[in-house]
User: Which sequence fits this backbone?
């Protein structure tokens, strides 16, 4: 058995893989320093760090060095391999770690067994809330925690409860908004599927805090498993005396019902959600009056998102101070992000607020799948914005994201690499909002549509310089004059891409080029006559018959027939098909 | 009271006042396209945005209540620019068909575009290819002209409780349509026309039938008679710059003569006949115990439609008496024809109504052909008549008054108040009182059933017995009364009321769907006053005392509820499906 194992991996993408090269250098140095005895040295495929130059890990201590240069090799062997000393300046920062609060039980317990939830500390918060705290104390605890709405708005949860507590009403409602609709975001579904009791408990505590007697889960119908798990959770909680008349023998009575959403994105907006629960068309209405005063059927109503409610039980059980000790500034606690896009490890990650975006993308996400550089990170779903790579070190908080022209939203985080075209990405998100606009108010209904038309023109190579000021004009009108959050934030992708990538837009409009090749309308395929060997492969493979010619005269691409599928370039063995 | 400043001007308003209304108080006009003074704010258009100090976003003046200390700016370059952009966006989805549109020169979108000085189309046109729906033959739906302000849907669902119109699809495809994308005529629509009356554009207009009337007037073989509904005389002036609510009966008569009508009659005379019949019906049910109580009035065709579709269980309570309008129609082609020796086939009866539902009523059942011909050939709205007068070359404003024609043109004061809520009840009670007691009712005004309260109730002493009456207008208010009746008569119990009057439109016919645009409660009150004044000025205020009424019963009808009356003046009701398959 060797005493030491040295693992090597060159992790940067800027040059050809140099793992082998360094392996040679290391081995040579070990030999030279007479340290080969008892040392096993291996180049590995993945070392868990990315874009960090040469990474060296020495086992069994697990000392990891990053960005190791040729000149460092000797001292690593002398100091660390031989003597076990640590070279501080080379140490890799510990990888960002997940901190799971909302997701604490997901994957760890059987969601269908209330016993498992209780064994994991569940319903301890409710017990404390019922028997140790007064309603005002519960609200104070949540206030102290600094918990803010995780569904997008970021409104302080305790304030909402306080408003509803003060509001007059014969009945009061708490609604759990599980109408998760951002493309790519699925933390709410995961929580409901993986830990339904945590949300249910949060809801009961909320009801207790502001005096609601009825809770409603508003779950989108596309989440049948979540609905099933919530149904089972409700039944189990009733059986355990955690729901219904006189909960746990106390004075508080509370019950819960489920309503299914029909799949309109706008129904995630509070007032549209209320209309939908009431059986009306999911149209937002003006606020004020706010739902906390005049909500479901006119009664004071609090609408909290799934993740928000899942945070409540541990806050009550462990205290608001515990929660507030995590995070940064006014953004306390943790946030679940749905990390997707061109990232190696996509999935849900829950981190403390204030973690740099870079850590999420690289340490947890593992960098880009393609190995290409990150171009930007899109956060906040269709209403969010892009954050260019220059700002990746920004600690993720509500305030910082807003400052960068994006939003926290429900926690969507989509990594874009250099192959992604911002016009194309922008079009994708805007189209989502245009499709999902409820149609009630003119700025959103028509403004979004007209902006999309402009973007489509630009991506087809029909853009004109006046398009950019026009996009600005419509986007401003939508932001200022739309009635609800959907319309007000729908132009965010446009504004934020214009803010950081105006040159790329101009490239499309003025030079009529899309450097990523994503905008097919702008692509031109042409045969480079110098490289062409007249093998006829392109003509044989062209599905559109757009390559006339013969082996005598050579081949050309007829742009009027070309459908820009790229097949010719794929089959050409000589790289003679240019794509511009 | 709430204190705030608007454009630096101090303003004090009651709590709950919108920024829009508060601005009006300090002579600041904030433009809006979707807000109608008569309806709740829907906040659909986004034009009325204002800035409030301390708010990062702009607020909508129509639906934001003023709060203490608010510092509001209604006009600055940024606000105006955004309003303009929103307006241009709206215009990009609206066809440029102003010259041939039913709302040309009377369109709120056209006006605001003119006010903003729009000279170019800023955004490419995106017109929706949605077919026109003229299936009801009373109102015409042109959804491609709709700006989705939501007024029609609001008035149809919330005020009229009819739920014929709704929004379909979403996003840029959003449109108004009956639910399920069926024809309006197959929907629960009762043709009250309130949608058309509140529409800011030409998306919902009355079905224009002036052409066949012109044809008849120009046809020498036709003997053209016309009748004017009570509510028309107090609204037509709005099209010619008269003070609101001015009663212009004499001018209307003169103008219709000039148009070429051979005889100008008054629906108020028909109302007097209705009173005779309905009061007799009431007495029969109340005193003689024949038939069910409460007796419910049936003059309003939209209400009749609503009842047949939505409350068929209440049909036995309905008065079988036709509406005054139909009565004048059938008497024109029978009594008048006979007395004048004219072949009824040659008589062309036009009615001028405040109402779009009357266009449907004239063919609604076989009983509307009691004369052997269609009793009324064409029914026009007040708005259509205004257009005819403008085409005719008649200088309406300066026209001297003229008298209506015999035999169906004179009426009592009771007849003319049929045009507003509470009027039918008051008129009927005056006569019923006499029929029960043999005496004249002393005090004529029943204050409890006047005014614009949605449901009005009163108790009257008639011949030593208490008569409980109720009045509802605006169909959302009907449910309350009907539920009360259902609960009361359950298991043979005592009915809560003996007599109920219902008019489909808020304010009654004076607020009808065919009236000039821009109705508000203030305007309704003025129009009502115009009718009450005429009643007060009339020497005869009891239907049964009017010589024209006495004469027709003597010469032609016999007695109320007699054989001829039953044949000509009464009808039947039948349950109809809410949705036609």
Assistant:
């Amino acid at each position: 058995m060797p005493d030491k194992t040295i693992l090597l991996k060159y992790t940067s993408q800027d040059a050809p893989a140099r793992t082998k090269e360094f392996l040679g250098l290391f081995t040579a140095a070990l030999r030279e320093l007479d340290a080969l005895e008892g040392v096993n040295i291996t180049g590995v495929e993945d070392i868990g760090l990315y874009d960090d130059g040469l990474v060296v890990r020495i086992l069994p201590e697990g000392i990891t060095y990053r960005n190791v240069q040729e000149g460092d090799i000797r001292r690593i062997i002398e100091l660390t391999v031989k003597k076990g000393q640590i070279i501080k300046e080379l140490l890799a920062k510990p990888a960002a770690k997940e901190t799971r609060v909302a997701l604490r039980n997901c994957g760890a317990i059987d969601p269908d067994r209330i016993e498992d939830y209780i064994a994991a500390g569940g319903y301890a918060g409710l017990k404390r809330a019922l028997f140790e705290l007064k309603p005002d104390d519960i609200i104070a605890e949540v206030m102290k925690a600094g918990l803010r709405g995780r569904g997008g708005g970021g409104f302080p949860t305790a304030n909402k409860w306080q408003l509803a507590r003060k509001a007059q009403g014969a009945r009061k409602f708490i609604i759990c908004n599980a109408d998760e609709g951002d493309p790519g975001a699925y933390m709410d579904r995961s929580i409901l599927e993986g830990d339904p009791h945590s949300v249910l408990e949060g809801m009961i505590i909320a009801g207790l805090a502001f005096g609601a007697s009825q809770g409603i889960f508003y779950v989108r119908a596309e989440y049948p498993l979540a609905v099933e798990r919530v149904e089972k959770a409700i039944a189990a909680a009733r059986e355990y005396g955690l729901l219904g008349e006189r909960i746990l023998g106390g004075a508080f009575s509370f019950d819960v019902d489920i309503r299914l959403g029909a799949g309109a994105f706008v129904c995630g907006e509070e007032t549209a959600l209320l209309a939908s629960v009431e059986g009306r068309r999911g149209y937002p209405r003006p606020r004020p009056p706010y739902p906390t005063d005049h909500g479901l059927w006119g009664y004071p109503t609090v609408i909290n998102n799934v993740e928000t409610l899942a945070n409540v039980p541990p806050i009550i059980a462990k205290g608001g101070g515990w929660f507030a000790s995590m995070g940064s500034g006014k953004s306390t606690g943790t946030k679940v992000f749905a990390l997707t896009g061109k990232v190696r490890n996509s999935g849900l990650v829950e981190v403390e607020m204030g973690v740099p975006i870079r850590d999420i993308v690289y340490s947890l996400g593992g960098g880009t799948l393609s190995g290409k550089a990150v171009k930007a990170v899109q956060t906040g779903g269709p209403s969010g914005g892009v954050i260019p790579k220059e700002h990746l070190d920004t600690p993720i908080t509500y305030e910082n994201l807003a400052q960068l022209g994006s939003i926290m939203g429900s926690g969507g985080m989509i990594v874009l690499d250099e192959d992604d075209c911002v016009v194309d990405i922008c079009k994708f998100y805007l189209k989502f909002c245009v499709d999902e606009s409820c149609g009630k108010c003119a700025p959103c209904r028509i403004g979004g549509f007209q902006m999309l038309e402009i973007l489509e023109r630009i991506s087809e190579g029909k853009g004109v310089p006046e398009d950019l000021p026009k996009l600005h004009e419509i986007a401003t009108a939508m932001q200022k004059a739309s009635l609800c959050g959907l319309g007000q934030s729908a132009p965010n992708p446009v504004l934020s891409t214009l803010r950081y990538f105006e040159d790329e837009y101009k490239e499309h409009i003025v030079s009529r080029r899309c450097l990523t090749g994503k905008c097919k309308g702008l692509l031109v395929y042409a045969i480079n006559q110098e490289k062409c060997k007249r093998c006829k492969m392109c003509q044989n493979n062209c599905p559109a018959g757009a390559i006339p010619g013969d082996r005598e005269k050579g081949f050309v691409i007829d742009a009027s027939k070309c459908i820009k599928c790229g097949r010719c370039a794929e089959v050409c063995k000589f790289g003679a098909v240019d794509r511009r | 009271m709430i204190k705030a400043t608007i454009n630096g001007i101090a303003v004090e308003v009651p709590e709950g006042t919108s920024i829009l209304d508060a601005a009006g108080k300090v002579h600041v006009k904030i433009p809006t396209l979707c807000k109608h003074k008569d309806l709740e704010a829907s906040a659909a258009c986004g034009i009325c945005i204002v800035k409030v100090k301390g708010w990062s976003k702009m607020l909508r003046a129509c639906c934001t209540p003023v709060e203490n200390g608010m510092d509001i700016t209604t006009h600055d370059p940024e606000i105006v620019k955004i309003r303009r952009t929103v307006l241009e966006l709206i215009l990009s989805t609206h066809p440029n068909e102003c010259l041939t549109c039913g709302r040309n020169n009377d369109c709120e979108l056209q006006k605001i575009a003119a006010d903003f000085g729009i000279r170019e189309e800023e955004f490419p046109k995106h017109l929706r290819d949605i077919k026109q729906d003229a299936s009801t033959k009373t109102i015409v739906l042109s959804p491609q002209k709709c700006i989705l302000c939501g007024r029609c849907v609001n008035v149809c669902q919330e005020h009229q409780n009819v739920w014929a119109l709704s929004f379909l699809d979403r996003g840029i495809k959003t449109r108004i349509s009956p639910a399920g994308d069926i024809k309006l005529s197959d929907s629960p629509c009762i043709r009250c026309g309130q949608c058309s009356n509140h529409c800011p554009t030409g998306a919902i207009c009355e079905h224009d039938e002036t052409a066949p009337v012109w044809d008849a007037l120009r046809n020498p073989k036709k003997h053209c008679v016309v009748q004017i509904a009570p509510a028309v005389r107090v609204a037509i002036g709005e099209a010619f710059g008269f003070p609101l609510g001015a009663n212009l009966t004499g001018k209307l008569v003169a103008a219709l003569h000039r148009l070429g009508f051979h005889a100008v009659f008054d629906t108020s005379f028909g109302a007097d006949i209705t009173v005779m019949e309905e009061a007799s019906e009431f007495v029969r049910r109340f005193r003689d115990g024949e038939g069910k109580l409460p007796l419910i009035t049936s003059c309003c065709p939209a209400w009749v439609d609503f009842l047949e579709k939505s409350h068929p269980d209440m049909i036995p309570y309905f008065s079988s008496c036709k509406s005054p309008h139909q009565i004048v129609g059938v008497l024109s082609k029978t009594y008048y024809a006979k007395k004048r020796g004219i072949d009824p086939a040659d008589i062309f009866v036009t009615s001028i109504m405040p109402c779009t539902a009357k266009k449907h009523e004239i063919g609604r059942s076989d009983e509307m052909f009691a004369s052997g011909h269609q009793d009324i050939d064409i029914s026009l709205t007040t708005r259509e008549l205004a257009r005819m007068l403008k085409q005719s070359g008649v200088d309406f404003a300066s026209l001297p008054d003229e008298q209506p024609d015999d035999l169906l043109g004179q009426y009592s004061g009771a007849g003319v108040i049929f045009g507003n809520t509470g009027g039918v009840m008051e008129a009927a009670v005056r006569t019923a009182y006499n029929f029960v007691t043999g005496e004249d009712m002393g005090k004529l005004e029943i204050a409890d059933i006047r005014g614009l309260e949605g449901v009005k109730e009163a108790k009257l002493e008639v011949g030593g017995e208490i008569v409980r009456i109720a009045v509802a207008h605006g169909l959302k208010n009907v449910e309350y009364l009907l539920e009360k009746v259902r609960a009361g008569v359950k298991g043979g119990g005592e009915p809560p009321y003996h007599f109920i009057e219902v008019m489909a439109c808020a304010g009654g016919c004076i607020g009808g769907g065919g009236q000039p645009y821009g109705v508000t409660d203030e305007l309704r009150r003025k129009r009502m006053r115009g009718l009450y004044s005429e009643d007060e000025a009339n020497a005869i205020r009891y239907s049964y005392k009017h010589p024209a009424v006495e004469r027709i019963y003597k010469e032609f009808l016999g007695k109320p509820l007699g054989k001829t009356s039953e044949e000509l003046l009464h009808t039947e009701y039948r349950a109809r499906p809410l949705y036609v398959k």
Notes: The first helix of chain B runs from residue 19 to 25.
